[in-house]
Amino acid sequence: MATRHDPSARATTGRGWALLGLILGVLLALSLYAPARWLAAGLARWSDGHLQLVNARGTIWEGTAGVVFASGAGGVESISLPGALSWTLRPRWDGVAATLRIPCCAPRPLQLNARPRPGGLQLTWQDGQSRWPAALLAGFGAPWNTLKPEGVLDLSMQGFTMQWSGPVLRLTGRATLDATDISSSLSTLRPMGSYRIALEGGPQPTLLLTTREGSLQLNGSGRWTGRALRFDGEASAAPGREDALSNLLNIIGRREGARSIITLG
Questions:
Q1: Which of 23, 66, 139, 164 has the most CB atoms around it within 10 Å of its CB?
Q2: Which of 57, 56, 51, 101 is nearest to 78 (CA)?
């Protein structure tokens, strides 16, 4: 006996497929043409307002924006980088490849791969160098907004990876920050000195602060616990520079005679 098909059932099925196709089309359009301001909003939430993209234009996948470092959501301290950031994001089978062009601070584009991980995210940075104005640190609030540093920060990374697992951040590879000709509004000495911070990742990441040259001597070491930085160091003035640096030494640490003891975490 021949099977009889209900025309109303076929119509219902057809409408179902049409609706599914419409939904998939909308989702694809959103993913391809989602505005850059969505990325800006997500980055601001993720960084608690410390890193902001302003006047974002384009799409999530390719766009431009100004970059502002701020002391947090609603914070009064903020520093804008000169020029604009442009970015390109490309999906990969295991995540997203990003290219960041920052003419003010990096002679070559910065590249990284973002990969989702169970309970978190992994960022793998391509080896490279960049140069940043030390003044941007004031945008992060205390104590930088009091010190108001000036000078140049040269950052280099080798095999550097950041992996978040919930609130825990694991670091591998090496990052070196050379702070050159640093000065502060709290001292008449300009510059006060040049310094190096070396971060070595691994199971127990370590940080080493040394003075390359200058009247303000800074030295110390620390370790990253996965949630916070534990650091112990000291600051002192070169012979003949004690009076010019006394006010600064009183603020950046706990005075013990001619030294200022710095403890974080």
A1: 139
A2: 51
Q: How far apart are CA 249 and CA 257, in angstroms?
A: 10
**φ, ψ at 190 (rounded to 5°):** -140, 110
Element housing 184 (H / E): none
The DSSP result for 60-118, as a single string, is SSEEEEEEEEESSTT-S-EEEPSS-EEEEEEEETTEEEEEEE-TTT-SS-EEEEEEEET
Q: Are 137 and 144 in contact (CB under 8 A)?
A: yes
Cα 215 to Cα 249: distance, rounded to the nearest angstrom: 12
Q: Can you tell me the mean pLDDT for 208-222?
A: 96
Mean pLDDT value across the chain:
85
Share of the chain above pLDDT 90, in %: 51
Under 8 Å between Cβ of 161 and 201? yes
- SS3 for 127? coil
Q: Which residues pair with 214 in a beta bridge?
A: 193
Positions of E strands within 118-227: 120-125, 128-133, 150-165, 168-183, 193-200, 206-214, 216-224
Instruction: Round to whole Å and give the CA distance between 106 and 84.
Output: 12
Question: Is the bond preceding residue 7 a cis peptide, omega within 30 degrees?
Answer: no
The pTM of the full predicted model, rounded to 2 decimals, is 0.82
58-67's contacts with Cβ under 8 Å and 24+ in sequence apart are 59/32, 59/33, 59/34, 59/35, 60/34, 60/35, 60/36, 60/89, 61/32, 61/34, 61/88, 61/89, 61/90, 62/86, 62/87, 62/88, 62/89, 63/36, 63/39, 63/87, 64/36, 65/36, 65/40, 67/102
In 107-188, where does DSSP find H-type helix?
144-147
